[in-house]
Design goal:
Blueprint (H helix, E strand, L loop, with lengths): L1 E6 L2 E3 L5 E9 L6 E7 L6 E6 L6 E3 L7 E6 L4 E6 L8 E8 L16 E2 L3 E5 L2
Parallel strand pairs: 2-11
Antiparallel strand pairs: 1-3, 3-8, 4-5, 4-9, 5-6, 7-8, 9-10, 9-11
Length: about 130
């Protein structure tokens, strides 16, 4: 199995940027499709972005497309989410997740497809 620890959250003004990191330990990082999810107060957990095992495929939700970039560094066993042009509606707890299902270029879009989760990091966008 894999252990996931997020970092990089915080308070940022609208229009600002943050980079989230998710450090993975345990089983080989490249064995997992990875995803970033978020959950705002009173709302369900939604997919932000996902990246395949070797990084050849990515997917973004419409709400973040063109503003966020997901990437992974297998040498560092780390998943990243670069967030630019942040909006107040991006405020949420952000979670990284790992799925051991599928194949090299598989992507997964629902929380139920992911087997391991980090503890989350708070992102607050406010002036």
């Amino acid at each position: 199995q894999v252990q996931l620890v997020e970092s990089g959250g915080g308070l940022v003004q609208p229009g600002g940027s943050l980079r989230l990191s998710c450090a993975a330990s345990g089983r080989t990082f490249s064995s997992y499709t990875m995803g970033w999810f978020r959950q705002a107060p009173g709302k369900g957990r939604e997919l932000v972005a996902t990246i395949s095992r070797i990084g050849g495929a990515t997917y973004y939700s419409d709400s973040v497309k063109g503003r966020f970039t997901i990437s992974r560094d297998s040498a560092q066993n780390t998943l990243y989410l670069q967030m630019n042009s942040l909006k107040p509606e991006d405020t949420a707890v952000y979670y990284c997740a790992a799925s051991q299902r599928g194949y090299s270029n598989s992507l997964f879009y629902t929380p139920s497809a992911y087997d391991y989760w980090g503890q989350g990091t708070q992102v607050t966008v406010s002036s």
